[in-house]
Amino acid sequence: MKTMNVDDAFNRRRFLGSAAMTMAAAGIGVIASTEARAGEKGLAAVPAIKPGTNTSFKALKQINAGLLNVGYAEDGPSDGPAVVLLHGWPYDVHSYVDVAPLLASKGYHVIVPYLRGYGTTRFLAADTVRNAQQSVVGLDIIALMDALKIQTATVAGFDWGARTADVMATLWPERCKAIVSVGGYLISSPAGNQTPLPPDPAFLFWYQYYFATPVGKAGYEKYLDQFNKFIWNQASPKWNFDDATYERTAASFHNPDHVDIVMHDYRWRLGLADGERKYDDLEKRLAALPPVTVPAITMEGDANGAIHAPSTAYRSKFSGKYEYRLITGGVGHNLPQEAPQAFAQAIVDVGS
């Protein structure tokens, strides 16, 4: 984003349901049945599943990859087409606890990593900068693919995970067979985020401004579980998750680097925290807002409590094979966990 006008602002992580649903209605299509869509295209339909059917993964593993020892869930045959599923904030791998077995049943090799600062992922060196700028998170996933000897994969995500999928598709398109991105095109830059916003959209980013202060960091650390559960309710106002569902994910926030990573992410976006000079060339390329050239499906939930752009606002950023899907039925920001069948079907379809 070259300037931070109101449309650009929609490409940053945010919430409040009424405005979000108004803009979602401006989208260009509604998915009433993913099975019907698959049938129209002659593709294999992903079986129906009740969200919350699964509470754990088939396997949880650790591997050294780049700067990290990465914790990740794995499912499906090791020789199947690879899929990397990426969570956002404040979520974790459990956003894909129903998606992973659906894809595995279709023969996919599914990898679901904890991002830096979450779950069992740890930095290998104590003196590594706790950096969360967008290019670095993308490099983490490239390093993970290298460690797992995965040359190409379909990369899919929401929130930070969608941004990372976009980053990977623009910087390393040779490693991405295709992407699925909830929320569309989410690449930005600190310089592009400097234009002051009118009061209404500025209000929607309260948590970013809160995190910019010492008291905000202290407050997030002190009220970590309450804060993130509040975000869940705001971002998915129609998702009736239970305490056990939240608590399975909340355990990931007690990673020793979690608070520092979250603070750096949002402060860096606003130009209040520096990045590392060794990543400047990558960030310069991203600041130009390059198009995604690989096949892509972008998605949105009809009850997403995070403010988001209508699909028309970012359509020009996808120059390859492309489709937009609006998922109905009260689906909020955590789309993979709230609508696992629809998300898994998009992954099957985008790579076909």
In short:
Helices cover 38% and strands 15% of the residues.
Task: Characterise the protein shown here.
The structure is a single chain. The chain has one domain: 3-Layer(aba) Sandwich (Rossmann fold). It is 38% helix and 15% strand. The chain has helices at 6-9, 17-24, 34-41, 99-105, 134-147, 160-171, 199-203, 206-211, 214-222, 224-235, 243-250, 258-269, 280-287, 311-314, 335-338, 340-350; strands at residues 59-65, 68-75, 82-86, 109-113, 122-123, 153-158, 176-182, 296-301, 322-327. Strands 1, 2, 3, 4, 5, 6, 7, 8 and 9 form a nine-stranded mixed sheet that branches. It is globular, with a radius of gyration of 18 Å.
Topology:
Layout lengths: L5 H4 L7 H8 L9 H8 L17 E7 L2 E8 L6 E5 L12 H7 L3 E5 L8 E2 L10 H14 L5 E6 L1 H12 L4 E7 L16 H5 L2 H6 L2 H9 L1 H12 L7 H8 L7 H12 L10 H8 L8 E6 L9 H4 L7 E6 L7 H4 L1 H11 L2
Parallel strand pairs: 3-4, 3-6, 6-7, 7-8, 8-9
Antiparallel strand pairs: 1-2, 2-4, 2-5
Helix pairs in contact: 4-16, 5-6
So how many helices? 16
Oligomer: single chain
Helix content class: 25-40%
What's the level 1 CATH class?
Alpha Beta
Question: What string gives the helices and strands in order?
Answer: HHHEEEHEEHEHEHHHHHHHEHEHH
In total, the number of domains comes to: 1
Low-confidence stretches: 1-36
- CATH topology, anyone? Rossmann fold
The CATH homologous superfamily name equals Alpha/Beta hydrolase fold, catalytic domain
Question: Keywords for this structure?
Answer:
single chain, 352 residues, alpha/beta, Rossmann fold, nine-stranded mixed β-sheet, 16 helices, globular, disordered N terminus
